[in-house]
Amino acid sequence: MNNPLFLLYGVFLLGLTGVAEYRGWSLSSVNQQKVLPKSIRDNPGAYRSTYGGVSRYIGGK
Amino acid sequence: MSSTLVSPPLVKAKSLACPNCGGPVELRGFAHTLSVVCPQCLSVLDPTTPQVQILQTFQGKERIQPKIPLGARGTLSGIIYQVIGFQQRTVMSEGDFFCWDEYLLFNPYQGFRYLTEYEGHWNFVRVQSALPVATRSGGRIAMHFEGKTFLAFDAMQAQTSYVLGEFPWQVRSGEWAACQDLIAPPYMLSAETTDDEITWSLGEYTEGTDIWKAFKLPGPPPAKSGIFANQPSPYRGTVGSAWRTWLWLNVALFGLLLFFSMFKSNREVFKNDYVFVPGRSASAFVTSAFDLAGRESNVELAVHTDLDNNWAYFSFALINEETGQAFDFGREVSYYHDSDGSEGSRNDTVIVPGVPSGRYYLRVEPEMSRSLTDLRYEITLRRDVPNNIFFLLAALLLLIPPIFKTVRSARFEGQRWRESDYAPKTSSNSGGDD
Hints:
The complex is a heterodimer of chains A (about 60) and B (about 425). Chain A is mostly helical.
């Protein structure tokens, strides 16, 4: 094998891909974790989402 | 392969007196020497005649000191050679003069060899008796010789501008010869044409450090400048090897993809339909609870809507019923279309990473413009889904090393052929503005 560094890099990438897939990683921006009170279950409107409450119009054709 | 050191016999060199200046002239080439240059006055002499005829007197202005001294002995390819002659050849190209040096090596059993040097690039050269066969390779002029195809590299008229030592032909300073070089790195096939004959020789690129070591010369060899015609590419063989490695890594990556595709549970854990009436529906609600089993893994949330020239925004929170831990995220869905085409999509999918097992519910808060119609949508949650984006990313990142090597190799070859008379014509070298 004439490309030991490339092979090492490739094996690292494959390993990283395997770990990402096994652990269920994602590139989505969804990882705002917080601990909410149990009252949210009964009063969902009381919760202020990090991503909510902003009027948006994105235009269109 | 065994190599036999064949040393020239340690006989005293024959000596004669220069008829021009009277200085002593040594002969190391024995009966092979047909001309010799007096080291004192640089006259070219014919030692084969009893009276040692003067063939040419030195007309030059400066003496040149060979980098390998005459008389030096060195072992090349397992054979001991002695440097007995030196000549400098000059070509004129586009108004500039270029010179290279040639050293004549002699071993009484092996005959003559040459060392050529141009700007720190050396070739060990042997005259060939066999003739190459003219051919073409990829539409280019080429020669086939000893199983290799040599591509035409350059052609020039070279003048012998300086001579020193002895030669097995009647050398003259100022002689012209037509030279043609063809390359199959690390080899160079050269033709030298005079009025009388065509001489073919085969050179092999040799590192200056090897020459210096062979002749036990002091100091470092002259530094290399540029890339020589038959200089072996440092990337030779590595590009193909890199692409083969890339192929095998992709096979392994595909195997990994198949493995996860087969063994990921990809289980639907929740599905429900909803209607949102802007201005009338509750702005936020929670779903019934559902179980996310197994190890920590991802959860895929898919929203399918009936949007038509409209948009909607969903604030989601995936909340663990027991711990209160929430995964908070928002998704924008929009779909517009007219006669020119469409934009966006009625559906959206997001993967929530690293969700521990437990009992969860989903908080949903849709938003729309008040003036628009009702929105029907379906929410589906799946546990432990394959996420091909990482495989795609890995495949793209795996491309970097072989592409990098390919580009470096192509750049090296581009630099090599830029010096060639047969270089591909480009707009940059066809212009004459600069």
